[in-house]
Each structure stands twice: as structure tokens, then as C-alpha cells.
Design the sequence.
């Protein structure tokens, strides 16, 4: 049960921290240089993770078991990083941009989840989706 709550808390705190840091990145710094440093530090932090989650069968055995998803995840992460750095540099509001991206991405994933992963959604979930859509309208409402 600990992992259940710890994992979602880590994701939430890290996501909030991510947006704060992305918005705080100096706009006069080349964002590819910024990301190069980011990924170098991420590499070191990931290596440190081996102390907590050591590979059971060795690193090479684990690497051989990987599929296209690791490459796809890398491309997606770089896209997210570039996208948010450019979004914040172009003047988007921190709270609005983060909410907009996450809600729209979630709405895109609903049919993917149903069709590909055979996830089930209830009427309550559908109502929540409608609330998200109403929230998007309200976020972008101009007075």
C-alpha cells in the first residue's frame, strides 16, 4: 500500500516542481544547452536509483528485454521539455499552461485507453470528462 500512495505523491510533487523549474529557466539561455545539463543530471540521478532498485538479472539482461517504448519515451520526454520551455518563454501563464496540456493530453488518451488497452470507463468518468471540457472553456474564457 505504501508504494501505491508514494508513487502518485512522487509523480504529483515532481510534476509541480517540474513546471516551477521550467518556468524559472532563464529565457536568455539556449534551451538545448539547458536540456543537455538537465539530462546529464538526470543520468546521474538515475544511476543513483540503482541503489534502491538494482537490476535483478544484470543491466545487460535488462537492456535486452527493452522494446520500442524506451525510445518512444525518450522522444516524448524531449518533446515535453522543449514544448514547455517554449510555452513558458512565449508568455503562457504557469497554472493555465500546465492544466491545459494535462487535461487535453488526458482527453486524447481516453479513446487510446479504451481501444488499445481495453480500459473501462463509467458514467462517472464520462461526467468527469465533461467537467474537464467545461474547465478548459473556463480556463480560456476572456472577459
Sequence:
Amino acid at each position: 500500500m505504501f508504494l501505491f500512495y508514494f508513487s502518485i505523491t512522487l509523480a504529483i510533487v515532481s510534476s509541480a516542481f517540474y513546471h516551477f523549474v521550467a518556468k524559472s529557466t532563464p529565457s536568455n539561455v539556449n534551451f538545448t544547452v539547458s536540456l543537455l545539463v538537465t539530462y546529464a543530471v538526470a543520468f546521474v540521478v538515475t544511476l543513483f536509483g540503482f541503489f534502491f532498485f538494482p537490476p535483478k538479472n544484470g543491466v545487460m539482461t535488462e537492456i535486452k528485454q527493452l522494446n520500442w517504448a524506451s525510445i518512444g519515451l525518450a522522444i516524448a520526454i524531449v518533446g515535453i521539455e522543449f514544448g514547455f520551455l517554449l510555452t513558458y518563454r512565449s508568455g503562457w501563464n504557469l497554472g493555465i499552461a500546465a492544466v491545459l496540456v494535462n487535461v487535453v493530453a488526458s482527453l486524447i488518451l481516453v479513446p487510446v485507453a479504451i481501444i488499445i488497452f481495453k480500459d473501462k470507463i463509467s458514467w462517472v468518468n464520462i461526467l468527469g470528462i465533461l467537467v474537464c471540457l467545461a474547465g478548459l472553456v473556463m480556463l480560456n474564457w476572456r472577459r
Notes: The radius of gyration is 18 Å. Helices lie at 2-24, 31-49, 59-64, 68-89, 94-115, 123-139.
